[in-house]
């Protein structure tokens, strides 16, 4: 239904963001520049909700990141430093 101002009161559809991997069906574990876009500053793998990739691409990314960690191309997740300790 439209109000007097002409705007509809329905739910807004979320804006579509471009998939950062496109239609990729292979993710190379040696491409660290690409993989670094999908890990946090602490080295953790970012979620699909944050990175906007498909479920299949998330699985490919996770496997590639884990392989790159094993080959010492990427860091393992680091724990935060404890506060108040010297």
TrEMBL record:
Name assigned to this protein: Small ribosomal subunit protein bS18
Keyword Ribonucleoprotein: yes
Role noted for this protein: Binds as a heterodimer with protein bS6 to the central domain of the 16S rRNA, where it helps stabilize the platform of the 30S subunit.
BP-aspect Gene Ontology terms: translation
UniProt organism field: Streptomonospora nanhaiensis
Keywords: Ribonucleoprotein, Ribosomal protein, RNA-binding, rRNA-binding
Gene3D superfamilies xref list: Ribosomal protein S18
Pfam families membership: Ribosomal_S18
Keyword RNA-binding found: yes
Summary of subunit composition and partner proteins: Part of the 30S ribosomal subunit. Forms a tight heterodimer with protein bS6.
Annotated family: Belongs to the bacterial ribosomal protein bS18 family.
GO molecular function: small ribosomal subunit rRNA binding; structural constituent of ribosome
